[in-house]
Amino acid sequence: MSLFITACDQKEEISTGSLEIVFKGTFGNEPLYMFGRSYDYRGDAAVKWQLFQFFLSDLELLGSGNAVKPHMLSAIESVSFGDIQSEEEALEGYALRFNDIETGTYSGLQFGLGVAPELNATQPSDYTPSEPLAQVSSYWEAASSYIYTKIEGNADLDNDGQFGEDEEKLTYHLGASELFQKRTLPVTIDIRENSTTSIVVNVDLLKALENTAEGTFIDFRQTPRDHHKNPDVYNFVITQLRESAISIGN
């Protein structure tokens, strides 16, 4: 009997490792950081960014056939570049770490951009202060919805090099359950026992604001602000962010 119990215990042991996902923000080919740097936009304007953040729901590693099963990493995470305020910090990136992942080779990373509908039906008071959805500033009480993404900055539209209070304030606070969709990033991820695997995910804010293939873009002069009121703006930005701006890096 003793030998049988020991054998069962050994059989149930699962080797695990950890995964670090490093989100690195860019604006085109330039490292993205807040406040300290101006970025050219479409040749006739410049912008200094102050905030860029978004939620990811149902963050999951995809399995590889029958060999490795999918692994759910997290129901909800917040990715914010708000505290990244130097080039050094931008190159280092914003990291999320996940432990206790069964070892093996996974075939991709899947996530939903924004807050999944079942979670979007909750509110900040349902969570402890350390949880992502406890952020009161990322919730619209009147709309009973979380804000999927925040993009804020100051634009210099007359090219005088000034970004003060007299210049254009950019504010895009967007999100609603009908916009929630999942995205899959194919990538081979090897989780090894007692070690940490690191992957880089690039987030290009410029690609969230323009589609060069179609020649469409967010015009700061026409629509400097949107709080999920203009479908042409929020559908464009959310779709671009999900489908074009986020990619696997090196």
Automatic annotation (TrEMBL):
<dbReference type="InterPro" id="IPR046863">
    <property type="entry name" value="MbnP-like_dom"/>
</dbReference>
<feature type="domain" description="Copper-binding protein MbnP-like">
    <location>
        <begin position="16"/>
        <end position="213"/>
    </location>
</feature>
<protein>
    <recommendedName>
        <fullName>Copper-binding protein MbnP-like domain-containing protein</fullName>
    </recommendedName>
</protein>
<dbReference type="Pfam" id="PF20243">
    <property type="entry name" value="MbnP"/>
</dbReference>
